[in-house]
Design goal:
Helix content of chain A: 55-70%
Strand order of the largest sheet of chain A: 2-4-5-7-6
CATH architecture of chain B: Alpha-Beta Complex
Helix content of chain B: 10-25%
Radius of gyration of chain A: 50 Å
Oligomer: heterodimer
Shape of chain B: globular
Largest sheet of chain B: 6 strands, antiparallel
Distance between the termini of chain A: 61 Å
CATH class of chain B: Alpha Beta
Strand content of chain A: 5-15%
CATH superfamily of chain B: Oxidoreductase, molybdopterin-binding domain
Distance between the termini of chain B: 28 Å
Structural class of chain A: alpha/beta
Strand content of chain B: 35-45%
Number of helices of chain B: 3
Largest interface: A-B, 18 and 19 residues
Shape of chain A: rod-shaped
């Protein structure tokens, strides 16, 4: 019962098939050892048992002794007829009972002497026949000695074979055990790597979420503060709209149950919208927005596209002091959004690295955690496009986002927006 | 553990011309027994397969334990000698715990010399080891003398 409880605890949460496989693998060396050892010991066991567990020629010696003794006593004439009969029957009791002679057929094959002839001579019971019986019994005993030597060689070979097989068994089970231990180590390391990867992904998701929550939170706080001093109903309404929008963005970016969908294996909630409605609101004092006069409809995830824009524009504003130009247009049948600043740009080395998480722009220029561009690229690719960063003509940096067809496998219908916003 | 066929009977005195079939010796003490005297001792009876004759036979005889008690060396290993010069040692742990007997009847009849009689050591069917090669020498035929093992 203790063993069963231990096994149940060991394999808790494991499928029965996997548990069965692991148990079978665990017992494999023991089973293999038993099978191999049984197989290995069989030849030696057979060699011994077939020969009567250490075959001894004693029974042949005993017969020769009994016959010789009877011959001597018969020749001496000292015993009564009854006593002589007893002595003869002693010898005859063995001679007529081939069953007590182990490996008789093999012994008789070693030479000309035969047990049946001894029986015949004893039954004839004349001086001459008893002399012949004695000679035959001695000869049969010699053949038994020869056969005993043959058996000795057979035993030695059986034991040598046994020795080889035992060593072989030890090697096989040893290697098998080492392989199983190595397998367990590999599995343990793989599991450790998987756990470490899972933890790293969770960390990354939380850091990205934290990064993306910062802007709407700042906006929310700022609008709330301004609302206290708003003097006209129109101003108040505008600020309330801003608060509402920031709260909706916070809700959209902070769904802890969907961190993976939001930041790692991005899942989009797509809808066909006029892209101008996403780009235009970014117009500000230092941000010039250029959009085409006609609607540019495209299937996108509005919130994620907004985050793309926020990150690119925020970077441009943070790392440069001049104006920032945002342009929405169409190239090769698909929309592209470019954000250009007039700052010092980036070295070729940094241009390659900025899309990796935690790589910031020119160090020390501004605070930042280097996550924004990595997320922009992730979202752009989820939309079937990409983002590129190049040095603009003259001065400055040009970030261009190309939008394509969102990957269907990552796409699900847009849910009803939180806070009643569609 | 021992299932006796009959209990001890009054030991008859040996008749003048009666043959001695068994001698129990313990040092200088010598106890000759005729067949009638042997039959007066408590007897055991069971069926077993004779290891050398390869036949199932119901044997009756005196348990070696009782012969050892009679000889005053109970609990010691026994040495049993045969008429043809053969001798074998029986372990005390075997004869004290199992009804190994010195048989004088086979299927209710005296055992002929051709069937390893008149007295033959017989081991019970169980345990199995009594019928393996290790114990083949314990099946002493033509037994005639019992002494404690040296």
């Amino acid at each position: 019962m203790t063993v069963i409880r231990f096994m149940q605890r060991l394999f808790r949460g494991t499928s029965p098939l996997v548990a069965l496989r692991e148990v079978l693998l665990a017992v494999l060396p023991a089973v293999l050892t038993i099978v191999l050892l049984v197989q290995a010991t069989q030849p030696a066991y057979r060699a011994l048992t077939n020969g009567g567990t250490g075959w001894s020629p004693h029974v042949y010696q005993g017969l020769a002794q009994d016959v010789l003794e009877y011959q001597i006593l018969k020749l001496s004439g000292k015993l009564s007829a009854e006593q002589l009969q007893f002595r003869r029957d002693i010898a005859l009791s063995s001679a007529i009972n081939p069953g007590q002679f182990i490996e008789l057929a093999q012994v008789e094959r070693e030479g000309p002497a035969r047990l049946s002839r001894i029986t015949g001579y004893l039954e004839e019971d004349t001086l001459d026949s008893i002399e012949l019986a004695s000679k035959e019994a001695v000869a049969l005993n010699s053949q038994a000695s020869v056969h005993s030597n043959v058996l000795y060689i057979r035993y030695v070979r059986a034991f040598q074979s046994l020795q080889r097989l035992l060593v072989g068994t030890a090697v096989v089970t040893g290697v098998l055990s080492m392989l199983l231990i190595a397998r367990a180590l590999v599995m343990w390391r793989a599991e450790r790597r998987r756990r470490s990867r899972r933890e790293a992904r969770q960390r990354e998701a939380l850091q990205l979420a934290s990064h993306e929550l910062r802007r709407p939170l700042q906006s929310l706080l700022l609008a709330s503060d301004l609302l206290r001093h708003a003097d006209t109903p129109e101003r108040q309404q505008h600020l309330l709209s801003l608060i509402e929008d920031s709260a909706a963005q916070l809700a959209s970016r902070a769904d802890l149950t969907r961190l993976n969908d939001l930041y790692l294996d991005v899942t989009l909630h797509v809808e066909s919208i006029d892209l101008r409605s996403v780009v235009w609101p970014f117009a500000a004092a230092r941000v010039n927005v250029n959009v085409p006069p006609e609607p540019l409809k495209w299937v996108v995830d509005r919130d994620r596209l907004r985050q793309i824009m926020e990150n690119l524009i925020e970077n441009a504003l943070k790392y440069t002091d001049g104006p920032v130009e945002v342009t929405l247009d169409e190239a090769d049948g698909s929309p592209q959004i470019s954000v250009r600043d007039h700052g010092p740009g980036l070295s070729a080395e940094l241009l390659d690295m900025v899309f990796l998480p935690y790589e910031r722009g020119p160090r020390g220029l501004r605070d930042g955690r280097g996550l924004g561009l990595a997320l922009v690229r992730r979202y752009a690719r989820a939309h079937g496009g990409d983002v590129t960063l190049t040095l603009a003509e003259g001065v400055g940096l040009l970030a261009t986002v190309h939008l394509g067809e969102p990957q269907t496998v990552l796409t699900e219908p847009r849910r009803a927006a939180l806070l009643g916003r569609e | 553990m021992f299932d006796y066929a009959h209990p001890a009977r009054t030991m008859p005195p040996a008749l003048p011309a009666e043959a001695v079939v068994l001698t129990i010796e313990n040092g200088s003490v010598r106890r000759p027994l005729t067949l009638r005297q042997l039959k007066a001792l408590p007897s055991v009876r069971y069926r077993t397969n004779h290891m050398q004759l390869h036949q199932d036979i119901t044997y009756e005889g005196v348990a070696l334990r009782d012969l050892a008690i009679l000889g005053g060396f109970s609990g010691q290993n026994l040495r049993i000698a045969a008429a043809n010069g053969f001798a074998s040692t029986i372990q005390a742990s075997d004869y004290m715990n199992y009804p190994i007997m010195l048989a004088y009847l086979a299927d209710g009849k005296p055992i002929p010399t051709l069937k390893k009689g008149p007295l033959s050591v017989v081991l019970p069917a169980r345990p199995e080891r009594f019928h393996t090669g290790t114990y083949s020498a314990a099946w002493v035929w033509f037994a005639e003398r019992i002494t404690p093992a040296p």
